[in-house]
Model the fold of this input.
Amino acid sequence: MILVLQPDVDESFLERVRKELMALGCTFSLSRGDEQVIVALGGNFDPDAVYAAAAAWPAVDALNLRSDRYYRNERRKRRFMSWLIIGFGLLTIAALAFPVLNFLRPPDNKLELTGPVRVGSVTGFAEGTARRLRIHGDTVMVVRDHAGRFRAVSGDCTHLDPCQLDWNLERQQLLCPCHGGVFDILGNVVDGPANAPLLRFETAVVKDTLFVNRRR
Ligand code: FES
Done:
């Protein structure tokens, strides 16, 4: 805490001020200049008591009743608030940007099956027929053979993408309309230019309901 007094303040007044400040618990350090007299206060004192005493001193030209510690604390507080505001700002930007970036991210080329997919009742599925289905992004040919068993294979030809296979009822085979590729109901290559079998899917019947799942 600092007191600023006029340069022509007399010694008797200074002595009075010194005594009063010492009575309030202050240490007293004085320096004289051409334009002012500076009194630096230290010690463990009550600033409000010094304020009250200084109000009665007419020769005190100006008072600066803030300690260095006060200003240091104020600077710390301001710095802390600045970091707090910057932190909240960055968090807000991240919270707003994440859903936007997530939305703009291109989708995966192939979605994975997450589990068995319910296809429907087996009673409406005639023997020797096939259905083309879309299951989690895959084209799947589900076939019921003449023995009543279900088979499921990819509906996409393995020769060239994206040719889709057709079911041939007479031959009980899958035919590719693009270059004449032929596959059996297990997905094996029977004829044509394709040299890789079709992707197979698992089938299961639970209480007359057919489920299809990706084979792992
Ligand atoms: S794309 Fe199917 S046989 Fe060529």
